[in-house]
Design goal:
The structure holds two protein chains of two kinds.
Chain A (H helix, E strand, L loop, with lengths): L4 E2 L3 H5 L2 H11 L3 E2 H11 L5 E2 L1 H13 L3 E8 L2 E8 L1 H25 L5
Antiparallel strand pairs in A: 1-3, 2-5, 4-5
Helix pairs in contact in A: 2-5
Chain B lengths: L4 H13 L5 H20 L6 H39 L2 H20 L2 H29 L6 H23 L5 H35 L5
The chains are: A alpha+beta, B mainly alpha.
Chain lengths: 116, 214
């Protein structure tokens, strides 16, 4: 596993990379690799930077698992590979987000019981 | 600012020379590198493309090559799943049972040592035909190299080695060990048929995805 998510506390985020990708693709019809890295950077105001060494292996793994589908289009003198969710991918996104919400709730209860 | 066709060709050539030989992997890397360089230029980097590219590669080449390895790993995983599924489709099942029927009936009428050698050689002959066909297609039509089609050879080679091992270690005299050879040989030939089925699908898939390349 590559330690390529660049930020102050990367270990905490590393396990959530697939969920982040699935969530973004769920909100946008289709996205390409570089676009995903930039979107994450923008949404987290630069706190989370996903490098290609972490992103593409995750995308390829999700594609191999049948959660993502691929479309290639010619853009600006080159070919661009777009990823989009498959039907299974959409279901998996819902599961992953539910898991993440549970995790956040549990952590909240542990770290800050008053808010939970 | 957008990179020109020449810039893209330069990135492509550089990555190909860096052992990223499969076009389906390279395509994605070219787009990523080009997008990064364009973003730098749009942010005000006034240097020539080649200087920006050189600095980018110094900082990121190692990660890009690791990405190549991970892509191949994912391709192998996907291919193994596809071939396993194709093994249970009727052309593969038909091949397996027809071969078994043929070998066992020949077993009763033919000299066993001759039959054993022939049966043992069949999967290799099949693989060579498959390999030569692919190589000729590649050279003759100057086709691009796609990861899934080439990695299939690796998967078959693993299957063939398992078969060959069983053939080598089984006793050459015992009749029951001949049946082990027949089973493995039929399995190897069924695997070959499954590979042809998967290759056909992959070629169609690549044709659809990379219309401007193939």
């Amino acid at each position: 596993m590559y330690i390529c998510i660049v930020m102050s506390n990367s270990k905490l985020y590393k396990g959530s990379l697939n969920t982040i990708i699935l969530k973004l693709l769920n909100e946008n019809d289709k996205m390409y690799g570089y676009e995903i890295t930039q979107k994450v950077k923008e949404l987290t105001k630069g706190e989370l930077k996903i490098t290609e060494g972490a992103l593409y292996p995750a995308l390829h793994k999700l594609e191999a698992e049948g959660l993502l589908d691929v479309e290639v289009a010619k853009v600006d003198n080159r070919l661009r590979k777009y990823y989009k969710l498959t039907e299974n991918g959409t279901k998996e996104t819902a599961n992953k987000l539910e898991e993440l919400a549970e995790y956040i709730k549990t952590m909240q209860a542990l770290v800050n019981p008053k808010l939970a | 600012m957008k990179l020109t066709k020449e810039h893209i060709q330069f990135i492509d050539q550089y990555l190909e020379n860096s052992d990223i030989i499969h076009v389906d992997i390279r395509t994605e890397m070219i787009d990523h590198v080009a997008s990064e360089i364009e973003a730098m230029m749009n942010k005000g980097d006034q240097r020539d493309f080649y200087f920006i590219f050189k600095d980018y590669m110094v900082a990121n080449k190692h990660r890009l090559l690791n990405n190549n390895k991970s892509f191949i790993k994912a391709t192998d995983k996907q291919l193994t799943q596809n071939i396993s599924r194709a093994l249970f489709k009727w052309p593969s099942l038909l091949t397996f049972f027809s071969c078994m029927l043929l070998f066992t009936s020949l077993n009763m009428t033919t000299d066993i040592s001759v039959l054993r050698s022939w049966v043992g050689g069949l999967p290799l002959i099949g693989f060579i035909i498959f390999g030569v066909y692919y190589f000729v297609q590649l050279r003759w039509f100057k086709l691009e190299r796609f990861s899934a089609l080439e990695r299939m050879g690796f998967i078959y080679a693993m299957g063939f080695n398992m078969f060959h091992f069983s053939w080598s270690v089984s006793s050459h005299n015992a009749i029951e060990s001949n049946y082990v050879v027949y089973i493995f040989s039929s399995l190897a030939l069924a695997l070959l048929v499954a590979m042809v089925l998967v290759a056909k699908n992959k070629v169609e898939d690549y044709k659809n995805r990379f219309k401007s390349l193939v």
